[in-house]
Write a structure and sequence with these properties.
Blueprint (H helix, E strand, L loop, with lengths): L2 H22 L6 E5 L5 H9 L5 E5 L15 E3 L2 H10 L4 E6 L6 H15 L3 E9 L7 E3 L11 E4 L3
Parallel strand pairs: 1-2, 1-4, 2-3, 4-5
Antiparallel strand pairs: 5-7, 6-7
Helix pairs in contact: 1-2
Length: 160
């Protein structure tokens, strides 16, 4: 599979996964957390899919497309550990989190997901969902939509 085809598969999985998760949390109270803003495409999709939810964003740098800059009060800039701790101190609770951090090095990405999972878990509402490209720990893994290869995108439910 070419890199271009792989990218198309990833983007399709991302869209299908977020749309599915948005439907699943329809009756659940809580905000949304975007972990990794990048260019802002996913943030833009979350804004469109969940217009009545506050969307928190964490990233090291603010470099999205100009149309995808989150409000200053919803953007936490810095290292993930510090920003997740900061968000927790604000008492925010998430119905949905999209985990999109990554270095492009699988071993490093898996290690980071494992390290950040215990900081994400307390932010989640019971029953909330985490949609992730990386394996996470401390959550119940659930099956996402049938259109997504279970190894392409991962879905987790917060149980506590």
């Amino acid at each position: 599979m070419s890199r271009l085809e792989s990218m198309r598969r990833r983007l399709t999985a991302q869209i299908d996964g977020i749309n599915w998760a948005a439907e699943q949390i329809a009756g659940l109270q809580g905000d949304v957390l975007e972990l990794g803003l990048g260019n802002g495409r996913t943030y833009d999709h979350l804004r469109e899919s969940l217009p009545d939810r506050r969307i928190w964003v964490i990233d090291r740098v603010l470099k999205p497309h100009p149309s995808c800059i989150p409000p200053a009060e919803d953007f936490l800039q810095g290292e993930a550990e510090d920003m997740l701790t900061e968000l927790g101190s604000r008492g925010a609770k998430m119905a949905l989190a999209h985990y999109d951090f990554g270095y492009g090095d699988k071993a490093r990405d898996v290690e980071e997901g494992g390290r950040l999972s215990p900081l994400i878990a307390p932010l989640m509402q019971t029953g909330g969902l985490v949609v992730s490209q990386q394996p996470l720990v401390g959550f119940e893994q659930v099956r996402g939509p049938d259109t997504i290869d279970p190894e392409r995108y991962l879905f987790y439910r917060a149980t506590a």
